[in-house]
Design goal:
The complex is a heterodimer of chains A (265) and B (195). Chain A is α/β, with parallel strands linked by helices and 265 residues long. Chain A has helices at 7-28, 51-68, 89-93, 97-104, 146-157, 163-183, 192-201, 215-220, 224-241; strands spanning 42-44, 77-85, 112-121, 127-136, 259-263. Chain A has two domains: 35-211 and 252-263, Diaminopimelate Epimerase, Chain A, domain 1, CATH 3.10.310.50; 214-247, no CATH class. Chain A has nine helices and five strands; from the N terminus they run H-E-H-E-H-H-E-E-H-H-H-H-H-E. In chain A, strands 1-2-3-4-5 form a five-stranded mixed beta sheet, with helices on both faces. In chain A, helix 2 (51-68) packs parallel to helix 6 and helix 5 runs antiparallel to helix 6. The longest helix of chain A has 22 residues, at 7-28. Chain B has a single domain (2-194), classed as Helix Hairpins, CATH 1.10.287. With 195 residues, chain B is an all-alpha fold. Classes of the chains: A alpha/beta (265), B mainly alpha (195). The A-B interface holds A 98, 145-147, 149-151, 154, 256-260 and B 44, 48, 59, 117, 120-122, 124-125, 127-128, 131-136, 139.
């Protein structure tokens, strides 16, 4: 008895083949740290942040964007990322902060901020902070100048019980500087004791080292692609790309080189 | 047979016309987009140049004001220190008087001088302004490259010719004045204090 294959069966086989090829490409494509992780608001590529800190940034940034999006000023998105480097040249060439910011499209109406920490292994192989670079979105720059951001870094990075606390302090002081002025939202000052207590007693989700999205995931992640093609593209993405349906791009923000950096030598 | 040939020819002409129309439409739109991008990026460079000029000027004025004020404090401390040093150590009243004057000058003026912070802020702002200019010039040159390529590459060059987009745009060249370091001068503390 001869079985005749109908068009539905052919499409099913082709679809499965497509999904197989997609995951094969995913498995063998090299990691590209210039792309955000699936968490988007925090990408710990240097593997230096605790789960507590990652959860802190993720929760805060999500909450801040939810509260500020759709306002006249535009939704504020703050992204924290750590990068492992082997040479200081990589900071300007490979991980140029303006290029990263534009690729990650941080902030609604250019109200975005990227705080990037660069780590290089010391002689014992322990990651050591060598540079902090901050890129400020076009519009956010009028609420947070380079001078003000530099002062926050100078005050907070050298203080604090440890590096993680100091970095959380930087993040909180940025919020305290921007939210009241731009949105009229009051912010309680950073409580170092409270944060240390939070780090010790944290029992939330555990995060490992961040993995960047693949190029395919990035291309099909939320952002430009979905905005352009709407609901049919979302359905297509969910059906064919499954986990690719993540936040891989921000609210379309851009920047033009505003911001500061600090070396730790 | 003749009917079929006419129908086929008509179809070919229709398809060719459709293809030509799509090429003209997309070509025209892409050239206009590239043209607008160069205009926008040119304006951004001008904007950054103006912002650099205004912002650095404002900061310099503020900083110079702080320095002048601090120079006056240094002078006052120098004078009082002189009178304290020359005071008769054996005379309690004279010694105490000179000491209190010195203390008053220092306390009143809060010797946490602002200009140190001001210099760091100025450095950050200058660094940012320069970085912004580098980025905006790079953006402009990139948009010029896209525009110039679009009016020379086939098939958009035909569309460019049809709608008058013929002249290539110039890249942002660094002029002689751009390569010169701006002169920033402050009142000298030592000369003012000693006078």
């Amino acid at each position: 008895m001869i079985m005749r294959r109908g068009p539905v069966q052919i499409f099913s086989v082709l679809g499965l083949l497509g999904v197989g090829v997609y995951y094969l490409i995913l498995a063998f494509s090299p990691q590209d740290y210039t792309l955000p992780s699936a968490e988007y608001y925090v990408s710990d590529y240097a593997n230096v942040l605790s789960s507590a800190s990652m959860d802190f940034y993720l929760t805060k940034s999500t909450e801040v964007f939810e509260r500020t999006k759709g306002t006249n000023v535009g939704g504020l998105q703050i992204v924290v990322a750590t990068f492992p480097i082997t040479s200081e040249d990589q900071i300007e060439d490979e991980y140029n902060k303006t290029t990263l910011f534009r690729k990650w499209q941080i902030g609604e109406n250019d109200m975005g901020l990227l705080i990037a920490y660069f780590y290089e292994n010391d002689t014992l192989g322990i990651p050591s902070l060598v540079n902090t670079s901050v890129e400020i979105g076009y519009r956010l720059n009028s609420y947070l100048t380079a001078g003000a951001m530099g002062q926050i870094l100078d005050q907070d990075l050298t203080a604090g019980a440890d590096e993680e606390t100091a970095q959380a302090h930087v993040y909180s002081d940025v919020l305290a500087h921007v939210l009241p002025d731009a949105y009229g939202i009051d912010v309680t000052p950073f409580d170092e004791e409270g944060y240390l207590d939070y780090l010790i007693h944290y029992d939330g989700p555990a995060y490992g080292a961040s993995k960047p999205l693949s190029k395919l995931e990035y291309a099909f992640s939320m952002g430009g692609f979905w905005d352009q093609f709407g609901i049919p593209a979302i359905i297509l993405g969910v059906v064919f790309f499954g986990d690719a349906f993540v936040l891989g791009k921000g609210a379309g923000g851009s920047s033009g080189g505003g911001g500061v950096f600090r070396w730790k030598h | 047979m003749k009917h079929a040939i006419i129908l086929t020819s008509g179809g070919v002409v229709l398809v060719a016309g459709l293809v030509f129309g799509i090429i003209v439409l997309t070509g025209y739109n892409s050239i206009v987009k590239a043209d607008e991008a160069t205009n926008g990026n040119y304006a951004q460079v001008q904007n950054d140049l103006k912002a650099r000029h205004d912002k650095i000027g404002e900061l310099l004025d503020t900083l110079k004001g702080q320095i002048s004020q601090e120079t006056a404090i240094y002078s006052a401390i120098t004078v009082v220190r002189g009178s304290y040093a020359s005071a008769d150590a054996s005379s309690d009243a004279e010694e105490t008087g000179a000491f209190n004057t010195l203390l008053a000058v220092v306390e009143d003026n809060q010797p946490t001088f602002l200009s140190q912070n001001g210099f760091i802020i100025l450095m950050d702002e200058i660094s940012e302004a320069e970085n912004k200019l580098v980025v905006s010039r790079r953006d402009y040159n990139e948009s010029v490259r896209v525009y110039n390529a679009s009016i020379r590459l086939f098939p958009t060059n035909m569309v460019a010719g049809m709608f008058g987009f013929t002249s290539a745009k110039l890249y942002w060249a660094v002029s002689q004045s751009d390569t010169e370091m701006p002169v920033i001068s402050f009142p000298s503390l030592s000369s003012s204090a000693s006078s």
